Amino acid sequence: MRPHLRLGNSKGFTLIEVLIVIIIIGVLAGLAIPLYRVTVEKSRKAEALGVLSAMRQAEGRYLSTWNTYTTGGAGAVGSATGPIDFDFSAATLEVGGQTLHFSYAVTTATTNTVLLLTATRNATDGGTAGDTVTLNQAGVVGGTGAFVG
Questions:
Q1: Contact 102/144 with Cβ under 8 angstroms?
Q2: What confidence tens digit (pLDDT) does each residue in 102-112 have?
Q3: What is the pLDDT at residue 88?
Q4: What are the helix (H) ranges across 67-148?
Q5: Which of 14, 55, 89, 135 is least enclosed by beta carbons within 10 angstroms?
């Protein structure tokens, strides 16, 4: 028997062994990446709900003072025609180096007694632009797209 054909003294991996390892890594990556994206979007929803909750609290303070909700008027802060005491503008939030994943909006009914706060996802960091998270004056959470449920 020739010495180079003996399996007992062979060193290294065969091509089949390497291919099997590559296939296993590919399968694991194929399962892990979608789950990772779902987890990231859940954390983004939590981020949006934190901001929407703070906006709802600010609107509640405004309502207790002026007996109406506001969408942010041209008046001074603290006046009946002014905005709430919570600045959710992109310019303010990006000052601290934060990446904005949502744009925020306040909607009120004609009588200004019904409130709907909306966070609309932008395409930053691979998000699906247009998916929304909503919160109303009663604290009911809703959503569209990746944020349903």
A1: no
A2: 888 888 876 77
A3: 60
A4: 90-93
A5: 14
Q: Three-state DSSP class for 80?
A: coil
Please give the structure tokens belonging to residue 24: 């296993």
User: Could you read off the pLDDT of 52-62 as tens digits, one per residue?
Assistant: 998 899 888 88
109 within a domain of the structure (yes/no): yes
Domain range holding 87?
14-147
> 9 in a domain, yes or no?
no
Q: Cα–Cα distance between 19 and 112 in angstroms, integer? A: 65
Element (H, E) at 126: none
Q: Report the distance separating Cα 91 and Cα 95, nearest Å.
A: 7
| Eight-class DSSP state of 70 | -
- The upper half-sphere exposure of residue 28, i.e. CA atoms within 13 Å in the direction of its Cβ, equals 6
pTM as predicted: 0.75
Question: Which residues are within 8 A (CB) of 10 and not within 5 positions of it... i.e. 6 or more apart?
Answer: none
